[in-house]
Design brief:
Rossmann fold; four-stranded parallel sheet
Length: about 500
């Protein structure tokens, strides 16, 4: 089989190289079910693996939410001075891909290449910049075969009719991540029992190929790897046998992540130390899944395609929607939620105005060293505390709005400090990217912005002519319309209140 090379996109260049050894970051570990202080295996460096998509169809919004959330995590770790290695895999060989190729007549390589390119373009639009490698499963089969061979050698895996299976009874901790213990799983198993399997929950490591399927040679016959083994091997190849953080959606806890742990920890080997799981997509408070009857409506289902959502609302709005809560909580994807997120984010964008055009990324040490009025310093500290306590982007963003309220009622100097602080702290989690406001404005926003530019030009002319009464009248009339005008060193800017 022809192979394409893994896509390496990093390392991402951090804003600050200093390692803040005195700063404490706590993370909720799904495995231990408690908050734990981050203590990286390598001081000053964090290794992070996040499960990526199976590329056989258009990416849905859930495929992009995880990378956005973990991009914010990686950005904050980097701001805190850590060097971050962030791996996000691409599953490019799977039953679904084979079925799609068989149904369409297109080669599996062409399908996976097209949807991999789409996925990477979507991440770029959403401002995901911290991923250092996108390994593809098909590039690591040569590593998967000896991994499986070692398990077979120690009788932890065995030959069945259609491939090599992992014996879950050989891993004493099976179920520790999901809380589903093996004896309970076996007692309540609805899986049709197979005489060639030792346990109903045993899972396939190597699938023997059927006629016409893509395959690779192995000691057990031509075939392809199972889904679970792919992530165990790719994480080991790029991050080492033991690494700091493994992330993914809450729906991957069982069986995918549980099976990863079992096969990776076989023979007493180490694996991921901290497990982070993100909430799932909801619609008006109800969970969305492929089996949801509403998804049979083509128009309803189409809104969850990532490319459609970005076309309708913009990448910046989607990123803000994902970040305005806590990563462990569900995200409501109803239109009202998206519109509200877009409105709220545009308020902040308008407030910081032309500061968003500057592509400067200050390190957190520089942001913390800046002298500020006590009220501003309090919000700065609270923003950092929220991010240090399990990456609570929702609470951190709430502090940006508190700073915005101070900016609107403060004098010129303090308002300018607040505007800079909103931009600089926001950029620590991937907000306020240069140029995003101009790229994603709705046509009505363009009209409003053009009219406001005209009004502020007229006001500036009045001030230049020392007609301060007219300038003040314009400002006061706009205030009555819930539009605040802020004068700064580079001229006036405006924002909508409320």
């Amino acid at each position: 089989m022809a192979r394409t090379s893994d896509r390496h996109v990093g390392p991402w260049v951090p804003a600050s190289r200093g390692y803040n050894a005195g700063m404490s970051i706590r993370i909720y570990n799904t495995l231990t079910r408690r908050l734990e202080e981050l203590e990286p295996l390598v001081p000053g460096e964090v290794s992070l693996y996040v499960c990526g998509p199976t590329v056989y169809a258009d990416a849905h919004i859930g495929h992009t939410m995880g990378p956005v959330l973990f991009d914010a995590v990686a950005r904050w770790l980097t701001a805190r001075g850590y060097r971050v290695r962030f791996v996000n895999n691409i599953t490019d060989i799977d039953d679904k891909i084979i079925d799609r190729a068989r149904a369409s007549g297109e080669s599996w390589q062409a399908i996976t290449q097209r949807y991999t390119a789409q996925y990477l373009d979507l991440l770029a639009t959403l401002g995901v910049e911290t991923i250092t490698a996108h390994p593809q499963c098909s590039n690591h089969i040569d590593h998967m075969i000896p991994f499986i061979g070692e398990l077979v050698e120690h009788d932890i895996a065995y030959r069945a009719e259609d491939g090599i299976y992992f014996d879950v009874s050989r891993h004493q901790g099976y179920g520790k991540l999901s809380g589903r213990h093996l004896d309970e799983l076996q007692a309540g198993a609805r899986i049709e029992r197979r005489s060639d399997l030792r346990n109903p929950q045993d899972f396939c490591l190597w699938k023997l190929a059927k006629p016409g399927e893509p395959s690779w040679p192995s000691p057990w016959g031509d075939g392809r790897p199972g889904w679970h083994i792919e992530c165990s091997v790719m994480s080991e190849q790029l991050l080492g046998r033991a690494f700091d953080i493994h992330g993914g959606g809450d729906d991957l806890k069982f069986p995918h992540h549980e099976n990863e742990i079992a096969q990776s920890e076989a023979n007493g080997r180490p694996f991921a130390r901290i497990w982070m799981h993100t909430g799932l997509i909801q619609y008006q408070g109800a969970k969305i899944s492929k089996s949801d009857p509403r998804m049979q409506d083509a128009a309803f289902a189409a809104q969850f395609m990532a490319k459609n959502a970005i076309a309708s609302y913009g990448g910046a709005t989607l990123r803000f929607l994902f970040l305005q809560g806590h990563y462990r909580r569900p995200v409501d994807f109803a239109p009202d939620s998206l519109r509200a997120a877009g409105t709220a984010y545009r308020r902040l964008q308008r407030l910081i105005g032309d500061l968003a055009d500057d592509d400067e990324r200050l390190g957190l040490d520089a942001i913390l060293a800046r002298p500020l009025a006590p009220e501003l310093a309090e919000h700065r500290a609270a923003f950092c505390a929220a991010m240090d306590e399990d990456f609570n982007t929702g609470q951190a963003i709430a502090r940006l709005f508190s700073l915005a309220a101070l900016a609107r009622k403060s004098d010129d100097q303090q308002a300018e400090q607040a505007r800079h602080l909103i931009r600089d702290l926001g950029r620590c989690i991937g907000l306020f990217r240069p140029g995003e406001q101009q790229q994603e404005q709705h046509p009505d926003d363009h009209l409003a912005a053009s009219l406001m530019d005209l009004i502020l030009d007229l006001r500036a002319q009045a001030r230049q002519a020392k007609d301060y009464a007219t300038a003040d009248t314009i400002r006061d009339r706009l205030k009555a319309l819930d539009i605040t005008v802020t004068d700064g060193p580079k001229g006036a800017s405006w924002s909508r209140d409320g």
